[in-house]
Amino acid sequence: MQPAGTSKPQGDYRIEPMKLAGVEVAIDWAAREGWNPGVNDAQCFYAIDPDGFFAGMLAGRQVASGAAMNYDGKFSFAGLYIVEPDCRGNGYGLSLTKALLDHAGDRNVGIDGVEAMADRYAGLGFRAAHRTTRHNFTPTGVVGIPAEIVSLASVPFAELVAYDRRHFFAPRDRFLELWIDQPHAVGWACMDADLLKGYGVLRKCRIGYKIGPLFAETTEIAQSLLAALSNHAVGERVSIDIPEPNEAANSLVTKYTMTPDFTCLRMYSRGDPGLPLQSIFGNTT
Q: For 21-51, what is each residue's pLDDT tens digit?
């Protein structure tokens, strides 16, 4: 999430609900900013909360975007916050921020923010929880995977939803339906005695692929899932967003000779919800 401006908006500027077409425009902006979104991200995230996407319109032109996706009555996540470069510094972001926070209401709002702007986020009521670093690597060849690693499609959806709920702050059934079934994506799971012990998804992005989520009960399971996912992206750039508190994930960084790209600061408006970060080897996105 980028910081809001501080001056009063100039000209014929208004905040409007953003339809899917506007979200796709904002996704293009995100690609331009170097965020490398997935090719199907707009449709997947719009399904979470279609009323949570807002556009800043200046004389009929979309110049700003932002989303506060309300997952349930307790939690929201804000992102896709961008102001067109030629319109920055005019107060358009501040009006948009207000619309996002108004939509979120009393919910705990999460963001991934730039560390340099942490003080400004704190001024909006956000508190830091941990850092997350994006790492990149390029798989060089197909490797074997153990028998307990199976196609995610073979896992009963209700079981997947229950497992995912243990690693995320809110239910996200509809999002998961779209996420695991999106074109140009693949999912693998670890089943042990008919119990789900981890899963991961690899999706096509503007450049290469991203892995996320990658949830696993042990480092060994995470390594096996990462290997299975990487088999589908040999020779391509693959990215994964690793929460810093998961020190065991360093073994993945070493094994795959990953290089850090950039770091964000995970912040919450009402305090850290206490996710099991030791089992989160890769954020969803």
A: 999 999 999 999 999 999 999 999 999 999 9
At which residue do the structure tokens 């589908």 appear? 232
Cis peptide before 3 (omega within 30 of 0): no
Gyration radius of the chain's alpha carbons = 19
pLDDT per residue as tens digits for the range 56-106: 999 999 999 999 999 999 999 999 999 999 999 888 988 899 999 999 999
Q: Kindly state the tokens that stand for 253.
A: 């960084």
Residues with Cβ within 8 Å of 138's Cβ and at least 6 positions away in sequence, in order, are 235, 236, 237, 238
Q: What is the pLDDT of residues 161-195, one digit of tens each?
A: 999 999 999 999 999 999 999 999 999 999 999 99
Per DSSP, which regions of 138-183 are E strands?
Answer: 149-151
Contact yes or no for 233/58 (Cβ under 8 A): no
SS3 assignment, position 228: helix
Total-model pTM: 0.93
Which two structure tokens, joined as six digits, stand for 126?
């956000």
Q: How far apart are the first and last CA of the chain?
A: 13
Q: Which of 80, 92, 93, 99 is nearest to 32 (CA)?
A: 80
- What is the rounded distance in angstroms from the CA atom of residue 27 to the CA atom of residue 29? 5
Q: What residues are paired with 66 via a beta bridge?
A: 54
Do 223 and 251 touch, CB atoms closer than 8 A? yes
**Residue 138: other Cβ atoms inside 10 A:** 16
